């Protein structure tokens, strides 16, 4: 059994990790940390885990994380970079669900995240954990930078077009909507029910932290810097991301066949039949990205619709997918649940 530790087990990604790992079959939850809730039973804070997770939250200092095989950081930005080096030295694999190791350029990271990087040496070693692109590198990694939720939906939607070189990479548009859980479990006015319900708004238009991550990933595939306009929106949903992506077609091609061929062997990317419109509820609770590609009126604009559950394929599920790759397990292990409806 793989001994698993989770640092920061009281947030939405932490509890989602516990939900997935509790039924994984090859993973044993050994330590769940929280300084604030140390000593409290996990099931007392999260009753949904009663009968599935029989552990107490522990202070990170005495949780025995160095005795784990893998440690997930479900923490705010800036935490994993302070603790990853000592765990790696102890032979522990690390999967960071925050952004500490996602950007290749340390100066760029410090600009967007507003703090000095505590472990710049590890940035070059970290492997970006998008399995549909980096599967073989992930298998041999010690440190995984789990992608962000918006970057996952956007990159999976645009990758086939850029890999095939059939669109203008300088004029991409990502118009994205997210459920409120994407903001985390912390108390903030804009995520209170009276603020978020019956409301719809854009945010981060001048620049969102996920923008450089998306540009980095797409640029690597395109072989050149990309021009991307990324506009996120907050919707009155609990879970889900819907990315509507626009690109200018530069040569005629069967788009449906292109996407089906690219993702034919990818268990967690589902290319829907031509003319489809994927919905966020069709991926709720599941580690899958559903995609539909359109060419309105047969013109030169490609519209890609990409939907994921931001807490699963956009966070905890993708992290477990990466763990499976790290330990030579079937990639689907613990992740074959059917989406929830309604």
Automatic annotation (TrEMBL):
Any GO molecular function: N-acetyl-gamma-glutamyl-phosphate reductase activity
Entry-linked SUPFAM superfamilies: Glyceraldehyde-3-phosphate dehydrogenase-like, C-terminal domain, NAD(P)-binding Rossmann-fold domains
The organism's place on the tree of life at top rank: Bacteria
Cell compartment(s), UniProt: Cytoplasm
Native organism: Chitinimonas lacunae
Record: active site: 149
Enzyme class: oxidoreductase
Gene for this chain: argC
Semialdehyde dehydrogenase NAD-binding domain residues: 3-141
Record bears the keyword Transcription: no
UniProt family annotation: Belongs to the NAGSA dehydrogenase family. Type 1 subfamily.
Pathway: Amino-acid biosynthesis; L-arginine biosynthesis; N(2)-acetyl-L-ornithine from L-glutamate: step 3/4
InterPro entries assigned: AGPR, AGPR_AS, AGPR_dimerisation_dom, AGPR_type-1, NAD(P)-bd_dom_sf, Semialdehyde_DH_NAD-bd
Protein name according to UniProt: N-acetyl-gamma-glutamyl-phosphate reductase
Function: Catalyzes the NADPH-dependent reduction of N-acetyl-5-glutamyl phosphate to yield N-acetyl-L-glutamate 5-semialdehyde.
Key words, A-Z: Amino-acid biosynthesis, Arginine biosynthesis, Cytoplasm, NADP, Oxidoreductase
EC numbers, comma separated: 1.2.1.38
Catalytic activity line of the entry: N-acetyl-L-glutamate 5-semialdehyde + phosphate + NADP(+) = N-acetyl-L-glutamyl 5-phosphate + NADPH + H(+)
């Amino acid at each position: 059994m793989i001994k698993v530790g989770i640092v920061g087990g009281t947030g939405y990604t932490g509890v989602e990790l516990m939900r997935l790992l509790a039924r994984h079959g090859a993973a044993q939850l050994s330590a769940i940390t929280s300084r604030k809730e140390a000593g409290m039973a996990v099931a007392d804070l999260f009753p949904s885990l009663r009968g599935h997770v029989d552990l107490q939250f522990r202070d990170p200092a005495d949780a025995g994380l160095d005795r784990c095989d893998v440690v997930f950081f479900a923490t705010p930005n800036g935490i994993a970079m302070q603790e990853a080096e000592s765990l790696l030295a102890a032979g522990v694999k690390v999967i960071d669900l925050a952004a500490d190791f996602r950007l290749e350029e340390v100066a760029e990271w410090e600009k967007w995240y507003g703090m000095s990087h505590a472990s710049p040496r590890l940035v070059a070693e970290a492997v970006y954990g998008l399995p549909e692109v980096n599967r073989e590198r992930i298998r041999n990694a010690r440190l995984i930078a789990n992608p962000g939720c918006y970057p996952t939906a956007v990159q999976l939607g645009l990758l086939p077009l850029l890999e095939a070189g059939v669109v203008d990479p300088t004029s991409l548009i990502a118009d994205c909507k997210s459920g409120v859980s994407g903001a985390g479990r912390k108390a903030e006015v804009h995520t209170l029910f009276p603020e978020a319900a019956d409301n719809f708004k854009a945010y981060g238009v001048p620049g969102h932290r996920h923008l450089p991550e998306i540009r980095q990933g797409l640029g690597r595939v395109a072989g050149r810097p990309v021009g991307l306009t990324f506009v996120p929106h907050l919707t009155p949903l609990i879970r889900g991301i819907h990315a509507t992506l626009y690109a200018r077609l530069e040569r005629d091609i069967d788009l449906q066949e292109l996407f089906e061929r690219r993702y034919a062997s990818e268990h967690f990317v589902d290319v829907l039949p031509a003319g489809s419109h994927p919905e966020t509820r069709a991926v709720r609770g599941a580690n899958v990205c559903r995609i539909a590609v359109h060419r309105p009126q047969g013109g030169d604009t490609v519209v890609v619709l990409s939907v994921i559950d931001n807490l699963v394929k956009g966070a905890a599920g993708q992290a477990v997918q990466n763990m499976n790759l790290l330990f030579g397990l079937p990639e689907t292990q613990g992740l074959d649940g059917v989406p929830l409806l309604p």
